[in-house]
Amino acid sequence: MAEWKSICTLEEIPRLGSRVVRSTSGNIAVFRTSGGEVFALRDQCPHKGGPLSQGLVHGNQVTCPLHGWKLRLDSGEAVAPDQGCSRRYPVRVESGTVFLEI
């Protein structure tokens, strides 16, 4: 059964950046947009496994640092013409604390 875990404060995730959370099922990248929204994806591009946490965040997308694939932060889906998906994890912010459902 999944549970919500406190992972950091919102301020610990830079705007247009990310933070990596290690889990037993692999690394999870937690992103923060310029507007302060928070999203979480498996830290692995569906193309060649690049670390999404090291990619560029723009709007509600992240660009993989290896080959430039763009993924939607809200769904993990690759932006056309690319195809594929990185697993999305539910995330919420309460009183400045970020919680991740693992």
Overview of this structure, please?
The chain is built from no helices and 10 strands. It has 102 residues and is mostly beta strands. It has a 4-stranded antiparallel beta sheet, with no helix packed on it. It is globular and about 40 Å long.
- Tell me the number of helical segments per DSSP (H or I, 4 or more residues long): 0
Q: Using the CA coordinates, give the radius of gyration.
A: 13 Å
Alpha-carbon distance between the termini? 9 Å
Count all strands and give the number: 10
- Overall mean pLDDT score? 96
Binned strand content: 35-45%
One letter per element, helices H and strands E, the order comes to: EEEEEEEEEE
CATH superfamily: Rieske [2Fe-2S] iron-sulphur domain
Largest sheet: 4 strands, antiparallel
CATH class bucket:
Mainly Beta
Principal-axes shape call: globular
> Helicity level, as a percent range?
under 10%
Poorly predicted ranges (pLDDT <50, ≥5 residues)?
none
The class by helix and strand makeup works out as: mainly beta
Keywords:
102 residues; mainly beta; Rieske Iron-sulfur Protein; four-stranded antiparallel β-sheet
Strand and helix layout:
Blueprint: E1 4-9, E2 17-23, E3 26-32, E4 38-42, E5 56-58, E6 61-63, E7 70-72, E8 88-89, E9 91-94, E10 97-101
Antiparallel strand pairs: 1-10, 2-3, 3-4, 4-8, 5-6, 6-7, 9-10
